[in-house]
Amino acid sequence: MPTDLPNLLTLSRVGAVPLLVLFALLRQPWADLAACAVFSAAAVTDYFDGKIARERKITSDFGRMLDPIADKLLVGAALMLLAGASRLSDAALLPAIVILLREILVSGLREYLAGLRVGLPVTRLAKWKTGFQMAALGTLLAGDSGASAIGLSWLPVSAIGEALLWTAALLTLVTGWDYLQAGLRHAGVADLSRHSGPPEPPRPAA
Which of 149, 157, 165, 197 fits as disulfide partner to 29, beta carbons 3.0 to 4.6 Å? Predict the structure, then answer.
């Protein structure tokens, strides 16, 4: 049911998006801290909604549908805000693009595999990727301006956030390839991921 606690936590993640956008667009030090706080709180719900659903055995089709949507809305909004407000260096745009494209890739794979009634399980490495990604985006939303608002102007917050973003992007490439391989296997073209060209003729028996 939509009113179950895990689903309410997931819905809160969706509801956090417009609040995140509002604070980020104010471009004030206190608002940057507020945007970081909203994003971080929403990111924490991503852990607890699944944990509670599994422990209480109250998983639902509604929750399975909404959870990845909420994640992608939150991450996509944060990336667009950071890029649009020029809060990312030119070099940091590359990992941001990688992360965004991976989200699109996995969404497409999940949609295709759902038609085959095949699930795409989340790997442990993908969970690490999510952790680094959320930490990076929360840190970047606070930025150097947010750090200065609480007397930490000496701390290179933006640089730390970009380093975390690069780490998340590298993990994104690995996990994205793993998911693509899974999709290729179910599409019946797994061999194309290993080699190209015509198949070798059979060798004569010794």
Answer: 149
Asked if 173 contacts 132 with a C-beta cutoff of 8 angstroms, the reply is no
Q: In the predicted model, is pLDDT for residue 115 greater than 50?
A: yes
CA atoms within 13 A on the CB side of 51: 5
Is residue 198 helix, strand or coil?
A: coil
Tell the burial category of 86 from Cβ atoms under 10 Å away from its Cβ (0-12, 13-18, 19+): exposed
HEC letters along 28-75: CHHHHHHHHHHHHHHHHHHHHHHHHHHHHCCCCHHHHHHHHHHHHHHH
Work out the number of other CB atoms within 10 angstroms of the CB of residue 21: 16
Q: Is the pLDDT of residue 204 over 60?
A: no
List the helix and strand counts (H, then E) for the chain. Answer: 6, 0
**What are the structural domain ranges in the chain?**
5-187
CATH number of 5-187: 1.20.120.1760
Q: What's at 23, amino acid-wise?
A: F
CA–CA dist 60, 29 (Å, integer):
40
Tokens 């494209």 correspond to 101
Does pTM surpass 0.70? Answer: yes
Reduced to 3 states (helix: H, G, I; strand: E, B; else coil), residue 152 is coil
State the amino acid at position 205 in one-letter form.
A
CA 59 to chain centre: 21
Q: Residues 162, 147, 37, CA angle at the centre, nearest 5°?
A: 80
